[in-house]
Fold:
Amino acid sequence: MTTAERQARIFYFSGTGNAAHVAQWVVEAIRGAGATATTLNIDGMDRCSIEPPEPDVLLGFVSPTHGFNFPPVMLGFLFSFPRTRHRNRVFLMNTRGGMKLGRLFVPGLSGIALLFAAAVLMAKNYKVAGMRPIDMPSNWLSLHPSLRPKAVVAIADRCEAIARRFAIRLISGRTDFRALLDLPQDLLIAPVSLLYYAVGRFALAKSFFANAACNNCGACEARCPVKAIVTVRGRPFWTFRCESCMRCMNECPNRAIETGHGYVAGVILIVYAFVADGAWMAVTRMSGVAVAGPLLWWIRFVFDSLVLLGALALIYRLIHVNGRHPGCQHILVATSLTRYKCWGRYRLSEILEAKRTMNSNKASSLQG
Ligand SMILES: Cc1cc2nc3c(=O)[nH]c(=O)nc-3n(C[C@H](O)[C@H](O)[C@H](O)COP(=O)(O)O)c2cc1C
Structure:
C-alpha cells in the first residue's frame, strides 16, 4: 500500500474512554497499513513543549463532544497548538453519544464540534483532510441511565470498524468529509453550543456531589483530567473548572458520586420564578439604563444566567458545608436519579475486557 505520510500522531482527550479507544483503533489501523503512529493523551501535557510537526506527518485530533462542541480542554489545546510551515494534513474525530434502540443505532449530534476545530487548525495553516463523528455509547449519565453492556459492545464494535476504515483512508493519502452530510442539522443546533459554553457547563459543574459512601479516598481528585475537584472539609468539591467529562462519577470505586437533579432543578425554578425578575427590576431602576429590542433580550439572558450561576455557586457552598448532615444528604440523594441501582455507571474498558475474556474462553472450549 502506498501511504501519503509515513508517520501519524494522534492527540486525544477522553473523559470515560470512548475517545481513547477510538484513538487506539486509529493507531492500530495506521500501523497495520505500514506507517508508524503514536497516540498522545493531552491530559496534563505540557503544551509549550509541543514542537511544530515535521513535513509529511499526518496529525489526528480525537475528542468527545460536549454541548455540540469540543470540550474547552480540547479547544484550549487546539488554540495553543503550534502553526505549521509545511501545511501538514490533519484529521478530526469527535466521539458522540450514540444509543441503540432495538436494532437501530441512534447517532449523537456534533453541532459545531468539527467545524470550529477545523477552522482553528486551518487558521494555523493545516490542511484538513478528514472529519468524522464516531457514535460511541453515550456516557452522559447525568442525563440518562447507562446503556446495557450488550448495547455498549454492539455500538463499540460498529465504531471500531468505522474508525479503522477512516484511518486507512487518511493514511493512504485520501480524504473523508462524510461528516459534512450532517451540516444542516449541525448549523441548526449551533446556537445551543454557545449557550452550553457560556452557561450550561458551569451549571453542570455544580451538579455533582458525594453521597454518604464517600470515604474521601481522593480517586476523583487524582483522576480528574482538568484538576477541577478539590477537597474541602474532607469532601470532594467541584469547582467551575469542571467540564462534566463524567470520569469521576463513572470511575468512583465506592459509587459515591451522584448528580443532584432535584437540587439543580429546584434552584433553576426558584431563580426564574422568584429571583431573576426582582433582581432585574432593581438593577434597571438603580442604573436608569433603558434598552429595547434584541439587545435587551441578550442583556437579559446574560443577566439571568449570571444570577442562576451565582445562586448555584452559593447554594452549592451551603450544601457542601452541610454535606455530612444526614438530613441534607437524605434530601440530595432522594432527589437524585443517579442513586438508583438501575441507573448504573459507564465503564467501557471493563465491558470490552469482559467481552474479550468471554470470547477467548469460548474459543478455548471449542478447541478443547
Ligand atoms: C457534558 C456532556 C455533554 C455531551 N454533549 C454531547 C453532544 O452535544 N452531542 C453528542 O452527540 N454527545 C454528547 N455527549 C456524549 C459524549 O460526547 C460521548 O459519550 C463521548 O463518546 C464520550 O467520550 P469520552 O468517553 O472519550 O469522554 C455529552 C456528554 C457529556 C458528559
In short: The CA atoms of residues 212 and 329 lie 7 Å apart. The first strand starts at residue 7 and ends at 12.
